[in-house]
Fold Peptidoglycan D,D-transpeptidase FtsI.
Amino acid sequence: MPNPSRRARKPLPPLKPRRAPNTVLRRRLLMSALSLAFVMLTGGVFYRQVIQTEFLQREGEARYLRDAVIPARRGMILDRNGEPLAVSTPVETVWAEPRKLINHLDKIPALAGALGMDAAFLRDRIEGNRDKGFLYVKRRVTFEEARAVREAIAEHGIEGVDFENEYRRFYPGAEVFAHVIGFTNIEDRGQEGIELAYDRVLKAEPGLQRVIRDGRRRTVQQVEQVRPPRPGRDLALTLDRRLQYLAYRELKAAVTEHKAKGGTLVVLDVATGEVLAMVNQPSFNPNSDRSGDSERRRNRALTDVMEPGSTLKPFVVAAALERGVITPASRFSTAPYSIGRNVVRDVHNYGTLDVTGIITKSSNVGSVKIAQKMSYQDLWSLYDQLGFGHPTGIGFPGESRGLLRHYSTWRPFEHATHAFGYGLSVTSLQLAQAYLVLAADGVKRPVTLFKRDPLMQTAAAPEGVRLLSQDTTRRLRAMMETVVSEQGTAKQAIIAGYRAAGKTGTAKKSAGKAGYASNRYQSVFAGFVPAGRPRFVMVVMIDEPGAGAYYGGVVAAPIFQKVMEGALRLFNVPPDDPEPSMMLAQHLQGTAP
């Protein structure tokens, strides 16, 4: 039997295994790391989705949205009848992505050949810009070049080459209008002439649009227009395209015939002061020949000066008539005339001449004697008021002001030389403006290259400033008609059916300190038609004729006759002397007695 003294013992529970401290720590660290990562992820998502939304959208759009330029057309330049003289035509420009093309240098010769470029030169440009994403290869290519490039891309699989649209300036009148119109550079900015002087008016402002482009920079979709393009303003000039062509043809033919160094011709409208034609020789083609000698690009009618010679004698007579120191009947001996140690002579000894005879025969002696009846200031004052020594204000770049020294510096012989056109210098346009005063009954009007609109008060023909009386100018025009006659020095300027008036001038060219060259001349003729009520004024100057003849009546006057005859026909000016025209018609028909 069991011993009661012994208690029954309970069995002990099984012992649980104790966890190692490192295991617990690792679990806690892992949970903390996961919790932290979750918090950071959540925070990052919140930051990007809520706070950085706009920034990320912009950055995303930047990967496929691009701002593209919308080309705008430069303003046109038109003649007085709306005929285009300068226009902008759409063309294509070839560009490349060097960082792509650098891996295909073996295909460069094909691209260069299509563009007519040197392959080595193009390869060097690509290698020199290998990190760039854009490079102009050739701007404003011809239609044939663009087609050849597309064929080369398709045939050789050239990548990184594409096209964009631009405008190219084109001048339909080419060399005929080159000196007046000028030209633009590759960036479409004016470099010469009207293109330069009125660049701010003609200049266009390109537009801006937002587009979607693919990886090859090709436009896939137009999203929006940021800024519309603004084309340049058109300019209407006073030049008449038909008359300009006629004037250029005759001037060029004369310069060639007389083997001259150059020449200029200017035609003005008497009623408005508008320039109807302005041509020069030699000339250049602004469509291609822009890098040649600057001598060819100079607008000589505005930049080159000359001593006007005998063409100033009518103004000496006008000043004397205005002051009452002579009358048309006054007579003067034209024998050689001494002034100090200097002697003034005429080509021939004409004996005694009245004032009309002095103009008709172009007497230096007679003109000097008339001038000596006035003070230095009297003669200088008229020259100054006519605009000699001052720019015309026509607004053309590089215009010369000429030279007219103040009368206080004159000496007796200089007073005399100013009476027959030496000792001062003028441009062809300045001389034409002075003759405009004689043609407009003594009123001086500003000359302009921009068409005046009679419907707009601000652009209407200006009233002008009266310099001479109507009576004086009409008497003087009658005297100058004798120059354009069989008895005058410009009989080759006679225009059948019209009364023409003018004055010849033959001036020796200065040789610097050595005085005047003995064999270098400038042949000039200035005149107007019809003489009774002049409609046009013209000045012609031939520089250094070298074929033998050099007198203004022989070299320059025939050009006046041909161009003015055409101007009268083009502008439908009725004849004012019908009898000669009838005789000419009879002669042409073989019925003249």
User: Anything to note?
Assistant: The two ends are 192 Å apart (CA to CA). The chain has 22 helices and 19 strands.
